[in-house]
RNA sequence: GACCCCAUCGUCUAGAGGUCAGGACAUCAGGUUUUCAUCCUGGUAACACGGGUUCGAUUCCCGUUGGGGUCGCCA
């Protein structure tokens, strides 16, 4: 029986989860699930200043949202302090570490790990064979003079404790890897496999900074993205299944994922393509889920009110169809469905309502719609076509003013479907209001 | 500065010596449509540069250039 694969995600909770970071989590998760192994979670919360319960909550929420379920209990690094120090003692007694006052601020003695004085080589699962010469490897502090363990110590000891077999993490850790390998060997623990992921850069090809925005998981959620779409896009950023598939379900990604197909060049997340991807995933969503997502977004946007009839809401969703690419699209582009206080788009008004004869046509349409026995899309469609034929006008002349009158905008779903969804009362009163306003 | 990593259309990528260098997003031109979106058809667009190796290099090697990472008693 072979050793089961075990990966981990070990974020230090800082209040936000960066997409580069969550992408590492996704790869760890994907790899573990593909191999039938375990995906563990460790919170590196030793920086008490930043590691607030709220910050931890954010990490957990982001993972939960993306469906990154972990196996076993969460290990909080702060609980492992004794173990870290115990190992440091052992390294001290075996000569792999020594105490030293490194001076400077005069803080007293700290524990320094002694590098073995030989070249270190390892096979990176994505970057290939990497070597660091002995002279480029310096001893480093593992326990501060105040007695607290340093990152390297905690990281390695915890990975050993957790039985991690594959360390999949960001590119910025490759230099650390040589130190870590030396520690595994000094401790006498099996050295795990390492895979280092290239970073995700911004449109300028630089590392993301706070100025770039759009880089935290929570922001994508607020903007109305679907977790499956973000997951899919991030999985494809630096990895591909090898065929031309792009829109993939979680299961398909799990089935296809291997570390040897991870690229080693940095890449940038294209928001436009992400938007497209979101639309693709939205198409696969049930109308109920789409409605729930849109409603939640509208609540965040402050556009929701409990007087909105659920059936009407569903009808609007169906009517909008593929025009919804983001949950926030409904509130952003179709709020007129839900309020009488909708704005009139200036350009559309000028072009379609204030056009010669447009308001006269609108008056006629009002009469036509009032007289409609059944207020259905088919009926209004037929009535307007008959009207067009009778007057020799093009449908465009009839449709545009009406659209602007009832929605305030020149773009939206098919007019007749829209009228039916809105219902006679709403439509007639909107036309009257428009007439009195612009006449 | 030292050490290390990276380099295919604008972007994400396929490619592991011989391909018309493929796909997707974006873009452009048509078509469908009452608008927008969708959808359909077609087009523009890439192997950073210079040396090798080879009958033949996008692919292998070296160098150059460009980009990035790391050099803490941060993580």
Low-pLDDT runs: none
Instruction: Give the CA-based shape.
Output: elongated
* Helical stretch tally: 18
Main β sheet profile: 3 strands, parallel
Number of strands: 12
Mean pLDDT: 93
Q: What's the CATH H-level homologous superfamily of the largest domain? A: HUPs
What's the CATH class label of the largest domain? Answer: Alpha Beta
Give, in spatial order, the strands making up the sheet with the most strands.
1-2-3
CATH fold label of the largest domain: Rossmann fold
Question: How many domains?
Answer: 4
Look at the helices and sheets and give the structural class: mainly alpha
Order of helices and strands: EHEHEHEEEEEHEHEEHHHEHHHHHHHHHH
- Measured as a percent range, the helix fraction is 40-55%
The CATH architecture of the largest domain comes to 3-Layer(aba) Sandwich
- Termini gap: 84 Å
- Gyration radius over CA: 30 Å
Which range does the strand content fall in?
5-15%
Explain what you see:
There is one protein chain. It is built from 18 helices and twelve strands. The protein is mostly helical and 439 residues long. Strands 1-2-3 form a three-stranded parallel β-sheet. A three-stranded antiparallel β-sheet has the order 4-5-8. It has a two-stranded antiparallel ribbon with strand order 6-7. A hairpin with a 7-residue loop joins strand 4 (97-101) and strand 5. The protein has helices spanning 19-35, 53-65, 81-93, 151-162, 174-187, 217-222, 227-235, 250-256, 271-283, 287-301, 310-320, 328-333, 346-353, 358-370, 377-391, 395-407, 415-422, 424-438; strands spanning 6-9, 38-43, 75-76, 97-101, 109-113, 120-124, 128-132, 140-143, 166-170, 193-197, 200-201, 267-268. It binds one RNA strand of 75 nucleotides through strand 5, strand 7, strand 8, helix 4 and helix 5.
């Amino acid at each position: 029986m072979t050793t089961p694969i075990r990966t981990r995600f070990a974020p230090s909770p800082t209040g936000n989860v960066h997409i580069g970071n969550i992408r590492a989590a996704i790869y760890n998760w994907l790899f573990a699930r593909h191999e039938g192994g375990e995906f563990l979670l460790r919170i590196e919360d030793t920086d008490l200043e930043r590691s607030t319960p709220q910050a931890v909550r954010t990490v957990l929420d982001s993972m939960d949202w993306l469906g990154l379920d972990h196996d076993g209990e969460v290990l909080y690094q702060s609980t492992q302090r004794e173990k870290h120090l115990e190992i440091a003692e052992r390294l001290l007694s075996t000569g792999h570490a020594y105490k030293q006052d490194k001076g400077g601020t005069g803080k007293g003695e700290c524990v320094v790990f002694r590098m073995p004085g030989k070249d270190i080589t390892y096979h990176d699962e994505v970057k290939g064979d990497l070597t660091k010469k002995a002279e480029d490897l310096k001893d480093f502090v593992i326990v501060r003079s105040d007695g607290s363990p340093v990152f390297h110590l905690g990281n390695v000891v915890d990975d050993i404790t957790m039985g991690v077999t594959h360390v999949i993490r960001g590119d910025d850790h490759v230099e650390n890897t040589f130190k870590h390998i030396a520690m595994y060997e000094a401790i006498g623990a099996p050295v795990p496999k390492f895979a280092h992921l290239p970073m995700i850069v911004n449109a300028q090809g630089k590392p993301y900074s706070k100025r770039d925005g759009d880089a935290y998981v929570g922001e994508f959620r607020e903007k109305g993205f679907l977790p499956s779409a973000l997951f899919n896009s991030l999985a494809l950023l630096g990895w591909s299944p090898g065929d031309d598939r792009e829109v993939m379900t979680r299961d398909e990604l799990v089935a296809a994922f291997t570390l040897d197909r991870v690229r080693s060049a940095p890449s940038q997340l294209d928001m436009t393509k992400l938007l497209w991807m979101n639309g693709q995933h939205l198409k696969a969503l049930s109308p109920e889920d789409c409605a729930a997502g849109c409603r939640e977004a509208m609540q965040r946007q402050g556009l929701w009110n409990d007087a909105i009839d659920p059936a009407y809401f569903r009808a609007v969703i169906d009517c909008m169809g593929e025009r919804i690419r983001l949950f926030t699209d409904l509130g952003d582009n179709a709020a007129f469905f839900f309020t009488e206080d909708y704005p009139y788009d200036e350009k559309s008004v000028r072009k379609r309502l204030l056009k010669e004869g447009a308001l006269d046509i609108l008056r006629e349409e009002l009469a036509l719609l009032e007289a409609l026995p059944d207020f259905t899309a088919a009926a209004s469609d037929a009535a307007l076509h008959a009207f067009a034929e009778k007057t020799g006008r093009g449908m465009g002349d009839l449709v545009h003013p009406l659209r602007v009158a009832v929605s305030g905008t020149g773009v939206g779903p098919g007019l007749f479907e829209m009228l039916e969804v809105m219902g006679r009362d709403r439509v007639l009163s909107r036309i009257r209001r428009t007439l009195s306003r612009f006449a």
